[in-house]
Please model this.
Amino acid sequence: MALRTAEQYVTDLKKLQKEIYMFGEKLDDWTEHPIIKASINAQKVGFELAQLEEFQDVMTMESTLIGQKVNRYVQLHTSVDDLIKRLFLNFEVQPRIGSCHGTRCSGTHAINVLYAVTYDMDKSLGTDYHERFKRWVTMIQSGDLTCTLAATDVGGDRSKRVSEQMDPDLYTHIVERKQDGIVIRGAKMYMSASPAAEWHVIMSPGAYKENEKDYSIACAIPANSKGVIYIHEWPAVNAARIQEDADIDLGISTYGVHSSAMIILDDVFVPYEHVFLCGETQFGRQIGSLTGRIQRTAATACKVGTLDVMAGAAALAAEANGLNWKKVPHIRDKVTRIVTLAAQCKGCVVGASAMAEEHPSGIFIPDLITANSAKLLEAEASIEASKLLIDVAGGLTGTAPSERDLKNPTTKRYLEKYLKANPDVSVENRMRAMRLCEYLCGVSSTLQVQAIHTGVSPEGQKMTIANAVDMDKLKNYAKKLANIRD
Amino acid sequence: MALRTAEQYVTDLKKLQKEIYMFGEKLDDWTEHPIIKASINAQKVGFELAQLEEFQDVMTMESTLIGQKVNRYVQLHTSVDDLIKRLFLNFEVQPRIGSCHGTRCSGTHAINVLYAVTYDMDKSLGTDYHERFKRWVTMIQSGDLTCTLAATDVGGDRSKRVSEQMDPDLYTHIVERKQDGIVIRGAKMYMSASPAAEWHVIMSPGAYKENEKDYSIACAIPANSKGVIYIHEWPAVNAARIQEDADIDLGISTYGVHSSAMIILDDVFVPYEHVFLCGETQFGRQIGSLTGRIQRTAATACKVGTLDVMAGAAALAAEANGLNWKKVPHIRDKVTRIVTLAAQCKGCVVGASAMAEEHPSGIFIPDLITANSAKLLEAEASIEASKLLIDVAGGLTGTAPSERDLKNPTTKRYLEKYLKANPDVSVENRMRAMRLCEYLCGVSSTLQVQAIHTGVSPEGQKMTIANAVDMDKLKNYAKKLANIRD
Amino acid sequence: MALRTAEQYVTDLKKLQKEIYMFGEKLDDWTEHPIIKASINAQKVGFELAQLEEFQDVMTMESTLIGQKVNRYVQLHTSVDDLIKRLFLNFEVQPRIGSCHGTRCSGTHAINVLYAVTYDMDKSLGTDYHERFKRWVTMIQSGDLTCTLAATDVGGDRSKRVSEQMDPDLYTHIVERKQDGIVIRGAKMYMSASPAAEWHVIMSPGAYKENEKDYSIACAIPANSKGVIYIHEWPAVNAARIQEDADIDLGISTYGVHSSAMIILDDVFVPYEHVFLCGETQFGRQIGSLTGRIQRTAATACKVGTLDVMAGAAALAAEANGLNWKKVPHIRDKVTRIVTLAAQCKGCVVGASAMAEEHPSGIFIPDLITANSAKLLEAEASIEASKLLIDVAGGLTGTAPSERDLKNPTTKRYLEKYLKANPDVSVENRMRAMRLCEYLCGVSSTLQVQAIHTGVSPEGQKMTIANAVDMDKLKNYAKKLANIRD
Amino acid sequence: MALRTAEQYVTDLKKLQKEIYMFGEKLDDWTEHPIIKASINAQKVGFELAQLEEFQDVMTMESTLIGQKVNRYVQLHTSVDDLIKRLFLNFEVQPRIGSCHGTRCSGTHAINVLYAVTYDMDKSLGTDYHERFKRWVTMIQSGDLTCTLAATDVGGDRSKRVSEQMDPDLYTHIVERKQDGIVIRGAKMYMSASPAAEWHVIMSPGAYKENEKDYSIACAIPANSKGVIYIHEWPAVNAARIQEDADIDLGISTYGVHSSAMIILDDVFVPYEHVFLCGETQFGRQIGSLTGRIQRTAATACKVGTLDVMAGAAALAAEANGLNWKKVPHIRDKVTRIVTLAAQCKGCVVGASAMAEEHPSGIFIPDLITANSAKLLEAEASIEASKLLIDVAGGLTGTAPSERDLKNPTTKRYLEKYLKANPDVSVENRMRAMRLCEYLCGVSSTLQVQAIHTGVSPEGQKMTIANAVDMDKLKNYAKKLANIRD
Model:
């Protein structure tokens, strides 16, 4: 059985020397940095669930490649059922972490896309990429290794083609072809949770011209390869995470980070054994299309989990404020709306997989239009749910005092007294609920909370309008038009 | 001329001893705390513009009360024109600060509401509240003083009335009536930019029953009154602001905070000269209604300014990415949509004022239904604009590295190289533009950026769908149904 | 006093020989045709209200031109107040007719736009168009005449300029310049309620090139000029109106038609006295812009009236179904939403006028961006209100039997028995309410009713979801993320 | 092989004596009435496709019950694949008819629901309903018969329970229990396409109390049973369909009707062989729930087909106006949006089926929350698509002249000349495209067309705004806030 425990994963990860920069500094003990640690915690959940009896069906499967049970993160999608189960993995992992399990998530995409594309290349060109790739996947599956897909280049000037950029390195490319491998240079952007990975698949999606052969690459590199440098993101809220003893204020303290990074590839050597496409520009478009179809479903699926938590958080916050979510009509309406948004995204993404196409290699690929439409639905749903969550939870999502104020005796006295709402919910737990909502809404700059709540809640405004309108007058207009005389 | 300079305001403010707690500590030199200072900076803009020739009409007016030129923040709305000019004040101040000028903004509401209500009380009850109130306003106008309205009580259990709460202090009330004044206790929530104020008007909106007389209050207190304690908000992003030398990372560093606080009223004494309603429960509902009508227009008006900046920021970010906002159709469409949302809110709020009612006291009050409807429009507009801004600006709004990485020579080299997009925009300025968008979107937890941008932009997905759809088939269905045969 | 009664208007109108085609036939007694009569009825309301004491301020004003009281439909907008009152005219007329009072409505635009443009032409070119135009307006005002603006040409191939069309007549143009006047040819489209007009202003908005001088025209023609031919619209629902004794089935039987027509200008002669622009291409763009700004506000204003009736109709229909609009939370929410949409449009359009610009001629023109934004808001509001109205009123809006079934004794017995809902509302009145909703939703093909109501109402589906969701599970996810342990 | 041809269906149908009232009259040769004939045409498509080789997989299946190939309309859903294929039947049939194939569609629901419920009843109560029901289904499958589900009662006062209504007949109930069968009375509403059916399943969904046993029924009746009376709907647009030679004006002339009817059950006798539930109130709730889950997916699936046609119609109309849908950015955006809406609904409804639950009887039932959420998505999608279609197609959707005007030589000359747009599209075909859009938008009262298009198209307004906005000013605000100095 090729399944590591979460602890084995962390032990293995700690052995890797990585060059990671964040907030202006090179990190020494990078796996213990609070932000990266939160990300590693999130990746651990996928290992933990795979050890539990009740999640065997969702989290693991028998590999057709190595004949052993493997984690679904490293699976080949060889049936519609595989595709759908892989989505359920996201449905299960995501609400437990509320943030990003991208370290392994995108790895599945890379494994399946390259399985199919190398198959086609060999058929078409007589190459032996497919066998080479299967050997690599065998290693990944056997070791239950974590692997991300690194596809997006920094891109430079958007109005120019790859080969027209001012700096040839703005798209990753081969700078040298050696006897035993290639040397690549460039930078990959937006690589979610990539510091927590052990391998990266470097891939170039998109159509290239004949003179852009050096830009057409697919290969795998160990994450600690020489020349790999991470520059970690620093969104405004991350500052909160490096403060001592931060817990409540973080909303989600155990997990709760995106941990994306730029991955600089500063002349990284890749032996041919790990090179799966090397200048075959005609396959770039297919890589892009297949990756898109798989990625769109996975990205939507994880937001389903987030939307589910948002519904739960809305109900929790309402109760912390003293209101039962199911008994107050407008709150029931809004919470149900979030549930509905989650279900619409879930249905759509499962449907895209149920209508999957089989590739000649045996890999199943979700329906193109449905997968993209699901992702568009998800983006709208997330924003709407964010609005609804702020609406339900109230102004405290943007204006809560710090947990430290709960520790200072002077302020603690006032907060315990004045932030009490539901007699059955402690002020600390009310703060925790509000902070979770703050995190989930993604509204830490407080602008959206102000946009929604300044003055009075939207519901208060609606009630004002309902009470103010002269409905008899409006009904009379209607009656006259309809010739109703009594 | 009763106009202070911004410097005079700060000098006067610094004289006040205030008890302000934030992040677990009592602030010593509170006006120099980086967060409160940013809020004071925002309030200063209102003083600065009032000194400029070109803004005389918008920012100032001749007071009918004191016969001198006063800042519109302390004006009485004695005509429709006054109401509309007061909105233009918000339209002008807000895009310059991008955050909250609530210190004085809500003061205008208090001044106008109590002017009208005390007038009615005197007419109805034979009291002399109105003259008393005029004396107080005269002082505020003459001194060009900053004053906030403190109306919202902490509220306790939302399913219970004022008098049924477990703790009588959950709504502010009179705990003692003395010979020369009253003593009040309670706590006011969500008081935007209140630390920067010199006076607070304590008011109880809403309908009270006969046995709730002690909860029915309106009075004014100096902000440094004994018993006044501030507990400052601590939204997640504020942590970023206490880091040394923070600038680019803050998006808006000079301003950029909400600076709301709970105001604890721990047995504050108020002399009768500053008490304007004291147990006259029958006027509570009117206070609520009038306040709502004025506040809704002002709250919407400031978001108009924010939406205007969001449109500008979207255009700026697109250019930093290498794209001209007006030439790329989908970007023009989205930027124009933000402009349209701003214009709809602006139109609606000006319309609510143009349809104002005159109160017998001479005060003009915006139309009830329109004012509330404008605010609802604004909440939806803000959320939609946030989505559009993330869409246009791209993934960097959630994943930018820190400005410190621009200073570390190792990472600076990579960032200067790989974050270059538009040849005419420096990487630093691109970062500034992205950070501003991050701030304006209010999405610092990165969840919404991920929701919108993971994998590929929405526009990329749409293009995929447009290319994939078999339109001939769909058109053929249409042609057959319409009996079109050629 | 230059005010005709509604009867005088009809008497005068009947004197005009008009060549009107509809449904394949030339109409003989055209003013008595049921469809055109319904349109004439709608125009009469504007005359009727102007006779009533209570509407003097809204419906009439003192003309600065002729020194007499005139109907606001023929006014010059010489102040912000004039502009806003003119909108209130729409707010009042529209909910009384529920359809289109376009005969005179667009006339106001023409009068004001040409007043301003002829003023500028004379200043710039030394022509005497302005005085000529004032003489014509004097006649219109003195006679209280009805006049439409005919601006939109049929347009031909949208991808080609005016002068590049396959047929030169696809845009109206001068075919001959005579000693005493010009001869024009072309066709104007979408002319709302134009059969009921006595005059038409023919105008060419848009920018023309030097070689397109003949297309640049503004002039006025009596509606019965030789060469004027109307081809009347025939939307699918109009068939219902030519059935004998139709009343209930029409939703709005007295009014309830759009009555737009193509106006063919088959070599119509216009004496120079009525020509107000004749080849001055450089003013075409200004005509377009000014017309747009006025027209956008008026078009939005009339939909405000429609939205108001929709709110009333929703409340009426709910009651006919046995439910009190204010007591059932989801119905109150939806009806209030329609009220809010109406108020947002109203506010925005009044705001656009309150922020009007004064043209040197003394004419006030609504703000450009706000006016256009208001119109966009209105289009979305109308569609959303339509959905809400169907939702509230229910499936009968698309599936009601005919009023004739209420007369046939066999079916009458069943309908009286089985369509009874609210004991206080007769089945006939329930049918009337449903038919009014059908009309207002604009959904006579029943597709949208089916889209919304098939199976069960949206509210039923929401309730199902609210009951089915395992909220404890979702809340537990939330609690775990927030580290809430009890 | 148990498959009838369409002709056999019509021949068999014509043999039935039915009492159908419409527009105040009892229909004689009811199958030839133009409205019912259009509905019968729509039902024929399901028979026709089932005869074609290429649709065998979608339209037919091997019945586990009778061991022969049957039409999927009469299938038992015995796997997820069956459920999904049944949806594809809707996806295929709907865009070919653009209206309603409800005659057989709801029959599938009845067959599957009662199969499951009778199974449970027998298990729980020891009855033999299940075998009885299987015999009836065997007959339906063997004869390839058309059968609708009649579930919705007229309902009376919505605020009262079944047993509290003023008239006991407002919900269908047993009025007599005889030796050999029961006699039922009541009226079923909104029965889509029911005149074209050969059988009706009468069913009572919902929870009943002990004293409401007589209201708890499920049974099947031949459509020509004694006591069955249809009162046919008469939506406003139906008047157009009874005019001689109507074709173009109808938008969809071959199909294009909903043809719903009230079905009066005036003491209809049902032999016990066709009674499948008779007073077992405890199963009412299950009937409601199962029906809902199946019906929601089918109702959504047929709108997917409609949305697909709407996308095709939008592209067609744009071309008729002279514009290529894919080359004009805003049209591509809107058409793609309709495609996306269709795909989202399709994905969601397939997903609901892919996540189906197996009932112990072997029947598969779509997921409850997802199925309801899909239907809610569809209602919003339909309205949005309607707006987009009007936007793209333009004002002619509401203002086209009649096809008769194309025949009258006088008007024909003008229409051929002035309605010409795209040189490659005849005026007749442009009219056909516009009429199809009119039908699909469901906007025959022209109100929505006016709401969207009066004055200028939304795109024209947006362009005006884009040109008018002072973006430099807005960008400067942004630059100042971001401290960008160059």
About this structure: The mean pLDDT of chain D is 89. Chain D is about 50% helix and 15% strand. The two ends of chain D are 80 Å apart (CA to CA).
